[in-house]
Amino acid sequence: MIRETREGVTLAVRAQPGAKKTAITGVHGEGAEAQLKIAVQAPPLEGRANQALIAFLSELFSRPRAQIELKSGDLSRSKIFLVRGVTRQYAESVLNARK
């Protein structure tokens, strides 16, 4: 779900667009295939759900939106985001605090 890179961490996300509110709802899958499940209030139209995910991750990790990049999954529910300037340890602590 979280992998460290030279730039920060990549985060595997499973988006659920059209939800009542944007929030982490759990984990999808197991092991190396695990993805952070995030319900997104925005609809999957014209990239609105992707932008809502970037805004949510920006707030979650206390990073500017410019530091969050969608690396893959533009049109898919399964997405990979790069969060620049964050260590794996920090990302894990943030996510563990949300449980």
Tell me what you see in this structure:
- By secondary structure, this protein is α+β, with helices and mostly antiparallel strands.
- It has one domain (2-97): YggU-like (Conserved Hypothetical Protein Mth637, Chain: A, 2-Layer Sandwich).
- The chain is 23% helix and 37% strand.
- It contains two helices and six strands, in the order ββββαββα.
- It has helices at residues 48-60, 88-97; strands spanning 2-4, 8-17, 23-28, 35-40, 68-72, 78-84.
- The mean pLDDT is 95.
- Provide the domain count: 1
Instruction: State which percent range the strand residues make up.
Output: 35-45%
- The CATH topology label is Conserved Hypothetical Protein Mth637, Chain: A
Radius of gyration: 12 Å
Based on the coordinates given, report the CATH architecture.
2-Layer Sandwich
What shape does the CA trace take? globular
Q: Which structural class do the helices and strands define?
A: alpha+beta
Distance between the termini: 15 Å
**CATH classification, class level:** Alpha Beta
